[in-house]
Amino acid sequence: MMEENVFTFLQNRANVRWEKDSSGSWLVFDINGEERILQYQVEMIRHNRRLQAVIVHKRQVNERVELWYEAGETVPLANYLREKNLTRDGLLDVLDLMIKCVSGCKNYFLYDRCFLLDIDYLFIHPRSLTVFFVYLPLLLGGDAESNFQRFLRQLSTAWRPEKNGDGLHLQRIIQELCAAERIRFEEMARVLKECRYSYFKRCEQKRGPEEKPFRLAPEQDEAGKEGKASDKGEKEALLAGLKTFSFIVALEAAVVAFFSFLTTSKGEGGSVADRLTLGLILTAVNILLLGVIFRKTPGQGSKKDKTEYLGAGWQDCLTKRMARDKEVLRKEMELQQQRKKNRDKRPGN
Predict the structure, then answer these.
(1) pLDDT > 70? residue 1
(2) Is the CB of residue 232 less than 8 Å from the CB of residue 310?
(3) pTM for the full model?
(4) Other C-beta atoms lying within 10 Å of the C-beta of residue 16
(5) 8 A C-beta contact, residue 283 and residue 248
(6) What is the DSSP letter of 210?
(7) 299-334 b/e (C-beta count within 10 Å ≥ 16 → b)
């Protein structure tokens, strides 16, 4: 019995018929001998939809066993090709799916030789073009790759390729696969993949470089370039302003330190400490102001805020602030000198 393949079994040892009810169409195989049914494979097909196999139900009728396949809204591929047709890409999708499902069925403890690869028993959904396979859960012989070549021979006569030349190229490839003495699934997958991508390559060569349409307004890319150039100019202006301000703050700190050194060398005790404290306070204020500028960079506020920030207004504001600080320092120095003179004029000095 193991020498019998799936096609000879259907011809000699099974009766095939169609049934219809409220749920749709059913494909029924009437088989003699319950011991031939592999129940675990029936359950595997029922609970693994990734197999793309038609759901099968086992029914016992007296001394015979019937396998009921849920066809539903699907139709046999032979009927679909007679009424409509598959495009070149649609047929490539069907062949790719067949190779993946048949060659990967061993992961689900199924036999690849038990798929009924025939255009009369391969079902396709008319709208989604999804294909489903009939699997016979039996102990059968045969070879899955030979069964696939038999399917390709049926397909080469039933499929009507497009007249644009690309479908004819695929038909020639199918005929070459049919004429081969023996071919592996891996080789068939490689040939079909090359056929698909060679078509894409020819389409790109025919299409050539894309021409840009005529536009009165500037393109978005140009606008993007102008925006990037504007942002770059704003960043450069900000960096230059920050460098200038940093130099001014450093110079002010140096001046304060210099005056503090002079007064210290004269030994004026508390007044020197007061002036030094004042100088440190001024320096700390300027450093904090510099930190605020670094935190508030252009881009965080509105467009109006950016313009005012990057213009001359903020520089004038800082200049006035530092001038006021220097004026306070000058007045403090004069006040200290006046106090010194008053002490020198006291009687007894």
Answers:
(1) no
(2) no
(3) 0.56
(4) 12
(5) no
(6) P
(7) eeeeeeebeebbeeeeeeebeeebeebeeebeeeee
